[in-house]
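Q&A log
Question type: sequence-to-structure
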Amino acid sequence: MRKAVVALAMLTLPGAVLAQSPNWNKVDASYLDTDVGVDGVGDLSFDGFRVGGSAAINPDLVVLDNLFVFADFDSVSNDDSGFDLDIDFLSAGIGSYKHLTNTTDLYSTVSFERAKFSGSGQGLSTSASENAWGVGVGLRSMIAPKVEVDAKVDYIAFDEDTFRFSVSAFYHATANLSFGLGYETYGEVQYLDVDSLSATVRYSF
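Response status: OK
Response body:
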């Protein structure tokens, strides 16, 4: 009886934090610090931004439960080499998640992927873009009441097949606002190796 009273008191205390699964309704804004390895040239430093997010699909609108849509857009640039160089990535699609525990979700995605590279300088300009599809699998977990980790790997069917690996950690300052750090790397894309560090502000709803 005493244990039940203590448990009830904890539930009713102001600010009490209960274990919960990750929230799939979110928007992110990130600063990116990106290193790009170019065959025959070496490493170049880029910086830029990412905007994106995801939203759970109302189960009343579809046959399956636990579906979500997502989109992420990255844009980084470099103008230290005498040329203006820009790289954009778009990833958008649909996913499904399964609760492994009260605090951990296993998820998979199917996505449309687009990569665009452009450069200009000294009266010259060039650009190239490529579209592809991708599939991915990941794990999101609230490893502590205010700390979330997310790790994911994607296979992307560009002309040269590649894998994208990402990992991030977020601190949830409030129920809606969180701050995170992340790392993402692509295998070779259009003869480029792309590695990014990110600092993110997230709003969950």
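Response note: The first strand starts at residue 26 and ends at 38.
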